[in-house]
Structure formats: structure tokens, C-alpha cells
Amino acid sequence: MENINPKNILSDNNSRSSLKLGIKLLLILIISILLLIPQAIIMDMVNERSNTEGLANLEVNEKWGNGQTLTGPVLFIPGDSTANNLYILPETLDIDGNINSRTLKRGIYDFTVYETALTLAGHFSLPKELKAEQLKHLRIDRAKLLFAISDFKGFSDNPALVLDGQPAELSSEALHLGSHDALSCSVDLQSLLDSGNLDYRITVPLKGSDYLYFLPVGRTTSVHLVSDCPTPSFTGRYLPAQREVTDQGFNADWKVLALNRDFAQVLNSHAELKKAQPFGVDLKVPVEQYQQTTRSIKYAYLIILLTFAVVFFVEIRRQTPIHPVQYALVGIALMLFYTLLLAFSEHLTFLLSYLIASVMTIGLITLFMRTLLRNTRAALFIGLLLTVLYTFIYVIMQLESYALLVGSLGIFVILAVAMYASQKINWYQKN
Prior knowledge:
This protein is an alpha+beta fold.
């Protein structure tokens, strides 16, 4: 009778066990890779919803009025040739306005629009840069005052102009100022030539959306804005010298000097104003649910791999086989989290949406693992791990500047824990 060596039997069993574990790990890896497909589909869904919001925003802006950029007023004095045309910028430009914001609804989306009555006041002076010989080539009798905004649909009433104490009327002509069409008014420059000054005052009833910008055309440009919008974003080349933002609105003051600009006080072409850098305020209520959902999806693969690793460790440790199909179901549940997050975030705050989606996902997977493992403690451990992971990802998304540092340290700790846990598992034979 042939002798059977127990060591050979043990070695064969260990080899088979090792082979089974290898095949199982390969199948889990394949499932993880296949889950990249729904991840990409969900990412496309987020982009599609974001584009839908953008189209709705464009439609609202098109009907109400787009973001407004104010240019002027500027004195235009035509020359006897195009090369001799002159555009004289105001000596002072003081802008004062109270911006009333309101919310318009389009489908499930809310958009911020505004109404205001801006007052532009100041005076023109004969610039020192203007030489006497240049006056000989100018058509003083055809001088005009030009004023432009970026979207004429934003006029809620006719602008009111007063020149040297006398009312005047702005009309639309085929004239341009910088990048925009301009309103114009004929100007008698005798006052400017006699006294050296020409006072002006323009009241502009205006509607718009998203933003309100100004060009610093005055030798000294001062802007004072008050608004009930609690979420302003001051932008442009020049920031407010003073500002106060509260839950009831904001109050901001700008002061820009000719020395701060990169264009002269007297221009030969209105196109030179195209190089002017605007400044002002963005009034759009920040809507970041799509951006934050996109950022969270980028961590999806990390959560899937870590969850699969823990489930696999628990499976080996408890000697309770889990079928690859059941791993796939867990992975699908993890991906479903992001569709829930996307759907809820369109109606609720992102934090509340994230909380609801994570509780639903963690609860589903915990109950599923409780049924598979027939052990409440092990299932709760997996649920606790998912809670830590989702909390960790949310914290990373909020940190922004420190996201890379905190994320790298967190993953390092997770890897260290996984390496330690792997030492406690007998990978080749049953206990």
C-alpha cells in the first residue's frame, strides 16, 4: 500500500486555497474595472444636467436682460478725417446705485436677476493733453456725448440726461463705444470752451442678471453700490476700497484713478476702450451642486476598492463565501449613491443631499451584508467603514486648498490599517 505523506496533502490544499483566492481577487478586480462604466455614465449625466441649467439661465437672461457693463459717458468730437477724431473722457465719474435683486424660477432652477437706477454724475474738462492745433481739425458743432451698456434690453425706462443743468435726450444711433453700441446726444461745447467745464448727470433705470460691471473712464472714477444681495463676488481688475457684506446685503465703494488705468484721457478711437479692464460685482447666487457632485464622483473608485477590500477581508476572516455577483451588487449600490446625490441636490442643499444619499446607501449595504454574513457585528463594521469614508470624502471636498494634503494623509492611514489587517488573515488555509 502506497504511503500518503500528510505534508503533501497539506501543500496541495494550500495551493488550491491560494488558487481560489487568486481567482476570487481577479474577479473582484474585473468587477471594479467594469464599474468604471457606470461611473462614466453618471459623470455624463451630471454634465448634462449642468448644461441644462446653463441653457435655462441663458433663456432667463435673454428675456430679462444679460449681465451689464457700463461704458461712459464719453465726449466724441469728429475731426475733418477719421484720424483726427477725438474721444475725451470725463474728469470725474461718480456712480451711485441701489441694486434690488430678485429670484426668477425656470423649471427646478432659480436664477438671480436685478433692477437698479444708477446715477452717473461728474464733469468734463478740456484736457491738458489736447493741443490747440488739434482743435483746428475738429468739428465742434457735431460733438456728441456717448454712453453705452452691453444689453439694451436692460433699459426699464428711458435714461435721463442733464447737461449743464439742462435736460437732454439720449437716442440710439449707429455709433459704438468700446465693444458696445452707444446712445448719443448732441452737445453744445461752447460751455466747455468758455469755462473749461461741462457738467453732466445721467439716471439709468436698468435691469440685468448675473453681474454689473463698470469701465473706469473718469480721470477719477468712484462707484458706490448698495444691494440686498447677500452673496456678492467682487471681481475685475479693481477691488472695492471698502466693503461690508452681511446676511441682509452688501455695501461697497470703489475708487479708480487714471494712473491705475492703461489707456489715456484723450483717445483717437473708441476701440482703444476695448483694452479697458472692467470691475464690479457678480450677483449670481452660487450654485455648486453639480461641481461638488462631480468632485465626489472622482472619489468613487477609491470607495469601491476600499469597500471591496474590507468585504473580502471579512469574508476570509469569517470563512463565509460571498459570490462575485454579490460583490457586483455592492458596487452598484455604491454607484447608486451618486445618482441619489445628483437628484436630491437639485432640490435640497448639497450637505443635506449628501447626508440623505449616504444614509440610504450605507443602510442598504449594511443590511445586505448582515444577511450574507449572518453576523450583525461584521455588518455594522462595514457600515461604520462606509460612514468614515463618506465623511472623509465630504471633508476633503470642503477643504479645497488643503484637499490634497488631507486626502494624501488620509489614504496613507487607510493603507496602513489595511496592511496591518492583512497580517491577521490566514491566506492559505482554514483555521
